[in-house]
Amino acid sequence: MHVMILGAAGMVGRKLVEKIAREPLAFGRPVTRLTLADAFQPPVPEALQPVSTALTIDLAGAGAADRLIESRPDLIFHLAAIVSGEAEADFDKGYAVNLDGTRALFDAIRKLGLTSAYVPRVVFASSIAVFGTPFPEVIPDEFFTTPLTSYGTQKAIAELLLADYSRRGIFDGIGIRLPTITVRPGAPNKAASGFFSNILREPLVGKEAILPVSDGVRHWFASPRAAVGFFVHAATIDTARIGARRNLTMPGLSALVSEEIEALRRVAGDKAVALIKRVPDPVIERIVAGWPTQFDATRASSLGFKAETSFDEILQVHIEDELGGRFA
Amino acid sequence: MHVMILGAAGMVGRKLVEKIAREPLAFGRPVTRLTLADAFQPPVPEALQPVSTALTIDLAGAGAADRLIESRPDLIFHLAAIVSGEAEADFDKGYAVNLDGTRALFDAIRKLGLTSAYVPRVVFASSIAVFGTPFPEVIPDEFFTTPLTSYGTQKAIAELLLADYSRRGIFDGIGIRLPTITVRPGAPNKAASGFFSNILREPLVGKEAILPVSDGVRHWFASPRAAVGFFVHAATIDTARIGARRNLTMPGLSALVSEEIEALRRVAGDKAVALIKRVPDPVIERIVAGWPTQFDATRASSLGFKAETSFDEILQVHIEDELGGRFA
Lengths: 328, 328
Description:
The structure is a homodimer. Chain A is an alpha/beta fold. Chain A has a domain of about 200 residues: NAD(P)-binding Rossmann-like Domain (Rossmann fold, 3-Layer(aba) Sandwich). Chain A is built from eleven helices and 14 strands. In chain A, the strands form four sheets. In chain A, strands 3-2-1-4-5-7-11 form a seven-stranded parallel beta sheet, sandwiched between helices. The first copy, chain A, has a three-stranded mixed beta sheet with strand order 8-10-12. The longest helix of chain A has 25 residues. At the A-B interface, helix 5 of A face helix 5 of B. Chains A, B: Keywords: Carbohydrate metabolism, Isomerase, NADP. Chains A, B: GO terms for molecular function: oxidoreductase activity; UDP-glucose 4-epimerase activity. Chains A, B: This is SDR family oxidoreductase.
């Protein structure tokens, strides 16, 4: 089968590619062709080089989506996006990529399907940013989407398009709303949510990390490995089980920052915990106060999507996948 | 003030224009300029001719929205749309007008606001078609929007855009989800919902009407007069009271077809009821079974939006507004 990953240079995209490299039968059929595309040149693991094409593209560019879809991928992962902070700061760019780029992709599939039989599976990375305060402590599957960012608005619109195009049989789509992915590998970044990962990742390798919010902050988490698992499951599930409501809040772990810290203590001791420096940042505190803390992801769970159930597990995943099973 | 009505040739648009003709101070300030636009030439009441411009436009046409907004209306009613059946039959036309046309309008306001202070009030006609089965018997304000038509999808997307553009201060928007407007004046039309009006309007003037569903069908109604009231209230309400959630399900009357018939009997007697011919139509029965039957429109009610509370009232409105207070 021909698999296409848009946003293949991003963290989750790269991990999805690595998964395919390790498990060529992850989708049940051999991956005979792999197209990786991103705004930055996506890396290609050696094992996949014979079947891979890596492209640097602007999804919102004229004709870009049509050229991608011409190659008739059977399975398309759409993870390409301008992230939340940038989409808020740059109105035009956020709408151009996250809305127009997504619609161009969906319409390219539609146009190809008008002239020949073509109904690919499309797995779309959505976000819990489709929700906006105030919400109940535990957000149910049928809660309305009232985003408070342009990014969340663009994701919610893409979800609606995905459902309508799927209903019309243009493609077979699933939108998956990811929890905050933790522990993110790599260097600390400036995302407001970065500290959730920083306070675990950095102390595990003997480095300090800053905690800008109180220990009592609650949030919604899954590991990068769980995220890849969501995408693989979404690629292979029988969509007849899903029906018309194609956008699913993924399961996750609702946990306090203090629970993160206690898991770190159990795994790496007081010495690691002592590396967490409390530097309250009112701006980040205010941003985080607007985020969901817990979902009742009954539908996705009943459809077989799985996440971790404790921060000990999330830490263990990080140690296995990023630190070769060992830590400092 | 300069008032613009897009979709001014439609039934609700025309009634809104007539309201302004009768009550020049309906919005608190005199209407010194009125721009009426539609795909068909909108009629202009004589009293408003000195201040009115009537335009035939295609909102989705190149530059059309910019040319409209150049005149800097203070208050914009956006009722222009390709209706549900046509948007479902003609994919391109529905998306072009209902999504691209709406976005072009919103972006025209944004562009003008980039070069000079301009933040108009925008009142958008949305629809309960943003909801799709299965839903609870009474749909709460926080229920999610999972439309099962392209029309409903386009309305739900426009709602999201309206909320995001309002949050950013580009304009001051309100989306109002109208109930099924009953009794629609004019000739019977082919809309699947037409019979709800036909079985009242036609017998009142001594004509037969066909009832294609059972008496036990429940639906959600408001009169044309109530719809105009929603628009006027949305134009004048202090939006600080609404906050970020700018799209509101309007109040309405949840009633059975049998309640419509009994109201007709009380007003016009058995002779009128006898003109209703039962001709079951499985296609219409199936379509109607997918429609909402009742909402808990708490938010809109608490914000002062008002609809009828009985079919006797709805019939009385029709007799007063369409039949000069008399019926055959």
